[in-house]
Amino acid sequence: MKAFSEKMTIGFLGGGQLACMSALQAYRFGFDVIGFTSANKYEPLDRITNKTYKGIPENPDDLLEFAKKCDVVTLENEFLPAEKLQEAHESSGVPFVPNPTAFGKVETKVLEKQNFEKAGIPLPPWKRILTAEDALDFGKQHGYPFMLKSSKGGYDGYGNVTVQNADDISQAMAQLQKGEQRELIGEGFISFRKELAVQIARSSTQVAGYPCCQTIQQNHICKQVLAPAPISEELRNEAIILARKALEAIDGYGLWAFEFFLTDNDQILLNECAPRPHNSGHYTIEGCVTSQFENHIRAICDLPLGDTSMRTNAAVMINLLGTQNGDLELTGSNELLQNTDGHLHLYGKKQSREGRKMGHYTLLGDNLADVQKTALELTDGLQV
Fold first, then answer.
1. I need a surface site. Which of 59, 196, 273, 349 has the fewest CB within 10 A?
2. 132 and 89 in one domain?
3. pLDDT in tens, 48-102
4. How many domains does the chain fold into?
5. Domain that holds residue 58
């Protein structure tokens, strides 16, 4: 492991809330932070550091110039090709964590499925889709409805279309491919009773898994996270083991998140992963001894990893999703701040839009069902 040094500069590719929350932990250690954010665009990271590099991430020269300003570069999103990250790493000599080789194994949903399938990780039925005939074949084999997804770049319901029958295929493909022959995947619907998530931190010498939590979706966007997941301890441990196995299969380092389906017959299937801190892990900020964001910094700097156990019996995180289009204005929040173990986070996004993640609220307590009920009551009716 590296010696502790306050002279380190950490570079974030991206300037949203995930970069902000990780950057705050970097500052705790005395590290410097620089963000690569889009030219002519305000991003939340701009408000907490004046050392943002404004450029075009896809431009190799801009990416190389940015890397040379850093001691280590990490990701906030998965939009850049692994090949460009590898080139910047080799040209600058600066480490990129997650390592571009591991990221390259999951940078598209097709590659992700292929590599985890090869490693023996259980997955829902899937197929690479390029043509309408591919989609028709998948529908015949696995039935309707099924999900059609962009292989790269989809998130929070963007890049996903539900195909109800064969007649929907042409329109669904046109919506996702936008006039190009973009790679898609078909995913079969499975009967599941819960969606689960696990965050894993990995340095050169340590691996640390967070408690398995449950995520609850609203219109394909995560609305609630319950920790620990209200399932048996045996199943929670199985999800953590699968997440570690998946990360080690691609030789990934840094902080990663893994999302699973728990089927009606208690089989755990890997849905997808993210090579960065994740919305499902926000509860760890107050709910765990060491948050996912602090362990993100520890892992990418190859420092000893922190304790991932929960500080409390129950933690519930509610995403505060935009309810209107326009300037941000949160109303009805006083009760959130009056609760002794409630924690409000707003992300500094200037513009709200329906369904956009504008912040989150975490409530801690002893009984998961009671904490969930109170958290929902406190956040019900908020206008963001």
1. 59
2. no
3. 888 889 888 889 999 999 999 999 999 998 888 999 999 999 999 999 999 999 9
4. 3
5. 9-96
